[in-house]
Amino acid sequence: AKQLVGTKSQLLDLGHKISDEVYEALTGVPGAFSSKILYIAGEVYGNGKYNYKLYRADFDGNREYLVLNSDEPIMSPTWSPDGKEVAYVSFENGRPAIFRQVLATGQREKLTNFKGMNSSPAYSPDGTKLALVLSKDGTPDIYILDLKTKALKKLGSSRFAIDTEPAWAKDGN
Fold it and tell me: What are 126-169's pLDDT values in tens digits?
């Protein structure tokens, strides 16, 4: 038996927390009911124009919060490990560029804007680096971007391979 106490304004959070506790008690697996999600919604207007919106919300779609609104496509949103910022691809400059954005302030930083592909950002487990895909030298290759120094390191290359969708191991290697 447990007791959770909160105010009326915290009822949704309490409901999510209770669901997490019950799910874990029944399955042994931590619940995801307190999780947040990122998603992109697109709208087509009658005149053939498009609008794209990047949202953050509770796992169930409640408490939707607009992160970015653009007339150009947005792709590949990803969370920083601490959940305080996101990285994504935006086409607002006429070609793909990778941005990161602080959720609390809306402060944005353009991280890449190379000719060709700029895609698939993935934060390192410690949040100090991004793995990403760039085709600035020809074929798509995976790079590591140090977020503090902005130094880029290419992880390998092949004229015949298309490297894409990097992901980090839990230990950051």
Answer: 999 999 999 998 889 999 999 999 999 999 777 777 888 999 99
Q: What is the pLDDT averaged over residues 113-132?
A: 96
**Sign of the C-alpha dihedral computed for residues 154, 158, 162 and 163 taken in this order:** negative
**3-state SS record for 76-109:** EEEECCCCCEEEEEECCCCCCEEEEEECCCCCEE
Q: What is the DSSP annotation of 3-48?
A: -----GGGHHHHHHHHHHHHHHHHHSS---TT-EEEEEEEEE-TTS
Nearest 5°: the CA angle 8, 12, 17 is 115
| pLDDT of the residue at 3 | 87
Element (H, E) at 119: strand 118-123
User: Do 126 and 140 touch, CB atoms closer than 8 A?
Assistant: no
Q: Taking a C-beta distance cutoff of 8 angstroms, is the pair 142, 155 a contact?
A: yes
Between strands 141-146 and 129-134, the pairing is antiparallel
